[in-house]
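Before drawing any conclusions, I looked closely at one protein's amino acid sequence and its backbone structure tokens, quoted below without any editing.
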Amino acid sequence: MKRLFISLYLLLSLGILGIGWTLDSLWQKNVDDNNALDAPLVALAQLLSQLPQDTRNLYLEALPSNPVMPLHLLDIDQIALAKDQLLSPNQVVTTTTSDGEQFQFIMVGEQVLMAGPLDIDPRSNLRNLFTLFFYLSLAFVALIWVGPLSRDLSTLRMATKEFGEAKWDTRISLSNRSQVKPLADTFNEMARHISALIENQKHLSNAVSHEIRTPLARLKFALALMPMYCQPDSDEQKRQDFLNEMQLDIKEMENLLQELLTYASLESQREGIQLDEYDLIQLVNQSIKRLEALTPTPITLKTTIDSLSLIGEPALIERALQNLLTNAQRFAYTEIYVDINQTQQQVSLSVSNDGEPIPEVDLPKVFEPFYRSQSVQNGNKGHGLGLAIVKRIMQRHQGDVSVTSDPQHTRFSLIWPKKRKL
């Protein structure tokens, strides 16, 4: 990170210095040519060029002497200039010797008018000093900008390194004025998401191992007892009941794995999803008709909407509704209600039953995977994945699920937008 800071700082400082110095040189060379100061010399050269060559020196000698700018008329072969300095009748060429003396030359016909030696402007050194001070100030300003940036990038690098070392609680805290604050916020959001996924994965692994242990132990015990039930003189009905119990254990593990696969498949992001158009009212009626035959508790649809066309994944919406209805059938005493409402932006679907209320301590946790209420009603059947699947289905549809429970009724509500956000 120190190398990055040095390279960025040098790039900015040297870039500003180089560009400024180049522009200054170009300005002095092509624009700031002291035309106003050279005008008298150019006018004198043009006047001399109108005179015969043998009278030009006499004319110069007749001029008042000026020790600040001595004038001499020379032949062109007496002048030695650099290759890039070309003499012309209307252009003054200025040179500076190694001794610090300055000379000016201009063509006068076939001769050259030379002014000098001249005193160099004493303010030129001061100008260079101010120029240096200007660029040093720019370098200081660049340091003020690059320094905090380099520090924040170093903080980001260290946080990334710690996160790569499995320190999942690593987060970045930067000032709101930081130039990389959006990048830090994105990192924190990513870290939170990854941490949640890892914790969820650990929880699932522990829960699966716990849930599958019971039917697996029963199967192992049944296999140990199988020779006793397979004797020729054993009771055939007992043998069949014994095999049926083994089949139930196998089915329980199959159901667990199927629920787990469904839950895991909903964890993936919603890219490349095939969306279909469906009628929510028709879908709810089909689910009610299929499930109400399983128990004597009636299921009633309460809505004033005849048809509600939506775009989404109808199979998942139906799965969420079925999970809520089967839960309600387990706990309801006399009735189950399904309510459907809509606004301009969203749809709400709720399933209510009049069964035993969910304990208040369980309400915040009922949508967690493998969590089951402490209530012992109906033996607490299931693996605790049904409501977790409902929550993920709603997240997949950019919606949410909530629950309210009191002694009169328990209500699960699904809310999701009519139009999916891209």
